[in-house]
Amino acid sequence: MRIGVIGTGRIGTIHANTLSRHREVGSLILTDVDPARAQDLAHRLGETAAPGVDEIFKWGVDAVVITTVTSAHAELIGRAARSGLPVFCEKPIALDLAGTLQAIGEVEAAGTILQMGFQRRFDAGYTGARDAVRSGRLGRLHTVRALTSDQAPPPAAYLPQSGGLYRDTLIHDFDVLRWVTGREIVDVYAAGSDAGPAMFREAGDVDTGAALLTLDDGTLATATATRLNGAGYDVRMELAGELDQIVVGLDDRTPIASTEPTGPPAADKPWTGFLERFGPAYEAELCAFVDVVRGERANPCDGREVLQALRVAEACEVSRRQRRGVWLAEIAGAAGTAAM
Ligand SMILES: NC(=O)c1ccc[n+]([C@@H]2O[C@H](COP(=O)([O-])OP(=O)(O)OC[C@H]3O[C@@H](n4cnc5c(N)ncnc54)[C@H](O)[C@@H]3O)[C@@H](O)[C@H]2O)c1
Fold first, then answer.
1. Rounded mean pLDDT of 304-326?
2. What is the pLDDT of residue 338?
3. Which residue among 6, 8, 11 has the greatest number of ligand 1 atoms within 8 angstroms of its CB, and so is best to mutate?
4. Which of 8, 68, 120 should be mutated for ligand 1, with most atoms under 8 A from CB?
5. With a threshold of 0.90, does the pTM exceed it?
6. Domains in the chain: boundaries
7. Mean pLDDT of the chain
8. Are 152 and 197 in contact (CB under 8 A)?
9. Class of the domain covering 120-273+302-330
């Protein structure tokens, strides 16, 4: 099969590498608004670069992978859908609900496939947690604690186009919370702090955020994120039930030190970022996409899944700005409702 990759930055490079090595993928066509970037990657992988997105569609491909900046995702998803092509797209679809619903509508009207890149669904730790919840061995869950801590902040220019900490970062925790527990989030209470570097205040964003979430079976969850975790990149989820409790993301590279004399030793080589922490998961989700395109497995994460996670992020933004609890039902885009 021949696959077009649109956007050859950080994530596009990872995905193109995976596809280029895949035995079912005959060739790739790579493109980027910065043509030199696409040419350089094509040269390194022994693939072909196209001068623009138009050529991807004109030259003919069997599927498209979209790894551009977020603002271009929705339009490209629509274009691929109208061409009848299956798409893998990095999260999110768009930074707003209207754009997200529009793109999902195009895919559903065309009857094509849209697989979204929530790679934590392919991580061994989260998969193990989901299996543990499903098996019943934890008993009824009462508390879930999720966290994502980046070691260093992104460049200032990234912040205004990121959608903010809840839509950009915590959206992963919201999705995987739903996926691991199999429950929906019904209300949120969120707070944020912009007490760190001024660039967060200037962008109207926060450097650290926390949300208290209630699931539809009464389980309470917290999700926190920061851009300023000097110790390293830390992504974890603790699930506590009436019978047992487990943790995802606690290993010999977790950047946290115990103050107990008999506690585990501090990590020699703490995780530094998502590309190394989730490398195997990024590879697995692209291999899954090839299987989906070949009709060998069901889509593991469609646009509606991203919509649900985005609605939680939207609710958190409303909550932290208005300093009040927010019901998910207040946020547009629930099944059967129109965009506001
Ligand atoms: N799943 C994850 O963990 C994860 C991690 C990082 C980024 N992402 C997502 O991946 C996407 C890309 O992020 P990144 O970190 O690779 O960014 P990046 O800036 O490194 O790369 C984006 C690339 O897209 C190109 N581009 C922009 N508009 C384009 C267009 N219209 N047509 C063709 N190319 C275009 C840019 O020139 C750049 O090379 C974002 O949507 C981001 O949210 C997901």
1. 97
2. 38
3. 11
4. 68
5. yes
6. 2-119, 120-273+302-330
7. 96
8. no
9. alpha beta
Candidates 3.40.50.720, 3.90.190.20, 3.90.1490.10, 3.20.20.70; correct CATH number of 2-119? 3.40.50.720
Report how far ligand 1's centroid is from the alpha carbon of 73 (Å): 9
* Atom nearest to 12 CA in ligand 1: 16
CA distance 189 to 183: 18
Kindly list the protein residues whose Cβ atom lies closer than 6 A to any atom of ligand 1. Answer: 6-12, 31-34, 37, 53, 67-70, 72, 90-91, 117, 119, 274
- Provide the residue count of the chain: 340
Token reading at 201: 């205040």
Q: Whose CA is nearest to atom 9 of ligand 1?
A: 90
Q: How many CA atoms lie within 13 A of 248 on its CB side?
A: 29
Q: Rounded CA gap, 66 and 90, in Å?
A: 6
Cα 312 from Cα 167, distance rounded (Å): 9
pLDDT digits (tens, 9 = 90+) for 130-142: 999 999 999 999 9
